[in-house]
Amino acid sequence: MAQAVAVLHWKAGLDANDVEFVLGSSPLSKIPPTSADMEHLDKDGLRHLSQKLDFHHRSVGMWLLDFDQCQKFEENEQGVERLKKGFYHNDSYYPRPALGTAGDTTLWLVFRAAYLQASTEITKSHMPMAFIEAVKKEGGRRQVGNSMFQ
Questions:
Q1: Could you say which of 14, 101, 133, 147 would form a disulfide bridge with 70 (CB–CB 3.0 to 4.6 Å)?
Q2: Could you tell me the sign of the dihedral formed by the alpha carbons of 103, 109, 113, 75, in that order?
Q3: pLDDT for 21-51, tens place per residue?
């Protein structure tokens, strides 16, 4: 998730405002049999060769949807503000700083590290760290107000 946000910010130049992450799964595709595999199959085994999907083994994926409210941003203080607003507008999809529980803190630190790592592979700008600091500051402000939705 953090890597996707970094790509949206620093590769696509979008603020990621109101994007949605969706987790889902899909069946794995079976590997087509070789001729050697087919030699050893009986009629029941041959019947199952036509089934290309393995519903007993699934892959998990994350999709990123809903870009209609995303906008370009400038790499300046107003741009950091736009990125921060986009982050907090996303209905608590992202791990938040300053929520107070150990689990929340761990999630935030993992998100932060992954975001900054991905960002350094895309840009040499100071903006990724400025964004993280703005999010952290806003998280502290919202914690004092006892609401993450402020």
A1: 14
A2: positive
A3: 999 988 777 667 677 777 777 777 766 665 5
